[in-house]
Amino acid sequence: MERPSLEMNLPDIHEEGKLYVVDSLNNLNKLNVCPDESQHVLDEEENTGGAGENTSGSNTRKRCLFFVAFILSLIISLALVSFVIFLIIQTRNKMDQISSRLITEKKNIEELKKMNNMILKHLNQSVIKE
């Protein structure tokens, strides 16, 4: 009866050895694939016993959210800069219109002054004649 119990223990040890070899190969593969900065994630996985997968997934998710937020902020900044440039151009156009109106009004005022002077001269001459 002892022999069957030994046979039962030997396959279990063999399977545990296979699991140990597979686990070692996985760790070696992770060391070769992962950059140095993510080594601490692997250490956390070993310490937590599988809960590290959620940590690495959350790190990837955090990076993805960071890049999405970064791209959105760039798009919003571009939109704001475009709006400011549009306002500057509109203000320049309005200022050009106002300055051209002022120049035109100044010419009209000069002509009115000349006409006023001519009328006054004419009135002064007609008063003197009478």
TrEMBL record:
It comes from Pterocles burchelli. Pfam families: DUF4577. Keywords: Membrane, Transmembrane, Transmembrane helix. The gene is Lsmem1. It comes from the Eukaryota. This is LSME1 protein. The chain crosses the membrane at residues 65-89.
